[in-house]
Every structure is written in C-alpha cells, then in structure tokens.
Design a protein that fits this description.
Helix content of chain B: 40-55%
Number of domains of chain B: 2
Largest sheet of chain B: 4 strands, antiparallel
Radius of gyration of chain B: 39 Å
Helix content of chain A: 25-40%
Shape of chain A: globular
Number of helices of chain B: 5
Mean pLDDT of chain B: 82
Radius of gyration of chain A: 12 Å
Distance between the termini of chain B: 116 Å
Order of helices and strands of chain B: HHHEEEEEHHE
Strand content of chain A: 15-25%
Structural class of chain B: alpha+beta
Shape of chain B: rod-shaped
Number of domains of chain A: 1
Strand content of chain B: 15-25%
Oligomer: heterodimer
Low-confidence stretches of chain B: 14-18
Number of strands of chain B: 6
Strand order of the largest sheet of chain B: 1-3-4-5
Low-confidence stretches of chain A: none
Number of helices of chain A: 4
Structural class of chain A: alpha+beta
Distance between the termini of chain A: 32 Å
C-alpha cells in the first residue's frame, strides 16, 4: 500500500493551506503560497479511492517521505515545513 | 565348514550356488579392492562395523559434494528471486515526445524516470521537479504528462515575480522543453 494515500495527500494540502487552482484530466493541482509567492505545487489524483497512491508528493514539496507523512498526520506544522524549505534554499 | 572371509561370503563361487551368482565378477573385484584396505576376518558381525566405517569414509566426500550442490542450488534460487525483484523495481527511462491530445508540443524530447515504490509506480521529470504516481508504469507516465501540462499552464499564467525559487526554476526548465500549440 502507498505510504502517502489520497486521504493523507488531502491532509497535507489542507495543512499547507494549498489551493486547488487547476483541474486536469487526472489531477487536481494544488499550489502553496507563502508571503505572496507560489512556493510549491503538487498533483492530487482524481478518484474516489482514499488509498490511491500519492508517493510522488514528498519530493514535490521537498520533503522526505517520512516528513511528508508527519506533515499530513500533524506533528510537522506548516511553519516547520517553510523552515525546512528555507534551509534548503527553496524559499 | 572352514571359516570363510567376508569376500567369499559376498561373492560365492559359481559352483557353490545353485542359482545366479550374487554379484558379478567385476563387482566382486571392486569389493575385494575395497576390502583389502580393511582388517577383515571372521564372520559378518565382525566385518559389518568395518564395512560401515569404510562405507562412511567412501561416502563422506560425496556427502560434502551433495551439501555443496544443495547450497549452490539455494544460492542460485535466491539470486533468481533477487533478479526478478530487480527487474520489477529497476527504474526505466521513458522518452516523452508528445503531449497529444493536450494542446502542447514538445520542443525538445526528454525522459521520464519511472520507478517502482511500494505497490505503485512513480514517474518523474527531475529537472522540473515534477512527479506523478500510477498503478502501472503507463499510468504513471500518463499522469506525469498530465501534471506537466497542468503545471506549465499554471506557471505561465502567474507573474514571474510571484513565483518562488522552485516554481520559477520549474517554469524555466519547462519552457525549454515544451510550448503551447498555436
């Protein structure tokens, strides 16, 4: 089973206050803004299966799979994530 | 009846037996050659332990050989399994030459890297930091194309100064490889 399921992907999007700005054939594309700048984007697959695999998301938001999971499950906050991005020179 | 050595017990002369001889002549000779190494005298009760010992000595190298072959067979089976896993999970490169039917054209063909992870496939265009998942390799690649086209459209409609470092780099990379048709 995928590590990042659709359910977790939606939690991650919610946590990052991501906006769904585009609906493509197979995805909803979520974008994350920070201080007026678009800093990350990722696709959330269409489909009703809550276990649909989204293991592509961690690298799109510059995180390790483990940290992306923590982001969706709560221990890691949006502020922590921005801090990680800043450390990696992505913001 | 005089005491007979075990050789003659095993290989009775033809004239002493009414039926067929117990062993063929060459088998008897082989037994003799074997027994010459043994201090055999007396009856079978005395001979048997020696025969058993000789039998063990003769077979030990064979047992070792069999054990070695069994180990090799196990290792070959293990390697076959590992090869099968590697064939299944090894990343593959898939050339991207079209976005049809989406209204984008490929300016410069590029490759998607498709790898197996857990029970799904992930297709990535690393230069643009774009990835997509799929239940099959083909689905992952199709999803990646979908993500690339959608992201390209978003990034090209946002003002450049509104893009952070990551998305700005994505846009610059994508512009080298694709453009909107018409």
């Amino acid at each position: 089973m995928a590590i990042i399921t659709k359910e977790l992907a939606l939690e991650i999007a919610k946590k990052l206050k991501a906006k769904i700005v585009k609906h493509t054939k197979a995805h909803d594309i979520a974008v994350v803004y920070h201080k007026g700048k678009l800093i990350a984007n990722f696709g959330i697959r269409r489909g009703s299966n809550r276990n649909l695999g989204h293991d592509h998301i961690p690298e799109q938001i510059f995180l390790r799979v483990r940290d992306a999971r923590l982001l969706g499950q709560c221990p890691l906050s949006r502020e922590d994530w921005v801090k990680i991005l800043r450390e990696k020179g992505k913001v | 009846m005089s005491e007979r050595d075990p050789i003659s017990l095993m290989c009775p002369p033809f004239e002493e037996e009414a039926g067929q001889p117990w062993l063929e002549e060459d088998q008897c000779l082989a037994q003799v050659a074997w027994q010459e190494k043994l201090p055999i005298a007396g009856n079978w009760v005395q001979v048997l332990p020696h025969l058993m010992e000789a039998f063990t000595v003769a077979l030990t190298p064979r047992w070792h050989e069999v054990a070695r072959l069994e180990t090799l067979q196990r290792e070959v089976a293990l390697l076959k399994d590992r090869c099968a896993v590697l064939e299944r999970v090894a990343p593959i490169l898939v050339p991207i030459e079209t976005f049809a039917p989406e209204p984008y054209e490929v300016v410069k063909p590029f490759h998607a890297v498709v790898r197996h992870q857990e029970d799904q496939y992930i297709a990535s265009f690393f230069d643009a930091n774009l990835s997509a998942s799929g239940d099959t390799q083909a689905e992952a690649v199709a999803n990646l194309k979908d993500i690339i086209a959608g992201t390209f459209e978003i990034l090209t409609t946002v003002e450049e100064d509104e893009l952070g470092r990551g998305p700005l780099q994505q846009r610059k990379v994508l512009e080298q490889f694709m453009r909107k048709e018409g």
